[in-house]
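Cross-check.
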Amino acid sequence: MTHELLTIGRISVDIYPNDIGVALEDVTSFGKYLGGSPSNVAVAAARHGRRAAVITRTGEDAFGTYLHRELRKFGVDDAYVLPVKEFPTPVTFCAIRPPEDFPLYFYGRLPTAPDLRISADELDLAAIRDAGIFWSTVTGLCQEPSRSAHVKAHEARPRTGLAEGQYTVLDLDYRPMFWASEEEARAQVAAVLPHVTVAIGNDRECAVAVGEGTPDEQADRLLDAGVEIAVVKLGPEGVMAKTRSDRVVSAPVPVKTVNGLGAGDSFGGAFCHGLLSGWPLAQVLDYANAAGAIVASRLSCADAMPTAEEVNALLAEHGRQVPGKFAPEGAAL
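Predicted model, tokenized:
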């Protein structure tokens, strides 16, 4: 079976406090969830009905068993999730202090983690080549053998244009604690950008990838590097997507933020769903933006990923076009 979305990289157990607005040292109880950006993106796409799978590694432990169970619960193929007995499954703690303070604390990732032990000779290159969308993150390039595995995976992908309906996505997800310097990260990103169809990042992540500048300057540099769709998140101003012939901006969807973590992964899964659906870029962006907003208004990440019905309802509530339907009267497209 060909996967509509195949992601590679991080997985972890996310430990989120049940006490909202409290410093981590004062939290009294926690909830346990599936986490890790590429894994969350696969879950998000599966919630939209897509055939999704993830290539990753866990420890050979109870937390690894838990993550397999969660992936299957969400309808994500876990056939490429293998154990690495030398290292424990990573755990990530978070404090939740809305609207903007959500610090992450990574445990079991340094000096390495199971998902950074993916090696090139373990890859199913046929599955990677044939997937409708292949999604990776910059974090997977931070150390060997994961770096070589990611490069080999990208090299296995056909270089197709947007009209062919097959996409290779690089999430510019830059985590400074995993890198010696921004310059090292920029060099590794530069090596894979020629294989990438879509690059997605915020201002800081784009700066690491292609240098400081305005969102348009950063998008243009990504396009010059070979990317065909450059997506630059604009924070409170929404998100912009740019191709060589088009530029669209989606304004933020107003919600009450509970936990900003996971919103980007929800955006990613919904963005993939829109690409696979063949929607115009403006509709893809609005849909993904709304999906991200929904998760920002909820506590967890994977468990919070919305369905298409929930995203469409939020779009309609704010007078935005629901994909596949006519725009509400008076709405700006």
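Residues 5-317 form a domain with the UDP-N-acetylmuramoyl-L-alanine:D-glutamate ligase fold (CATH 3.40.1190.20). The chain is about 35% helix and 20% strand. Passed to J.P. for a second look.
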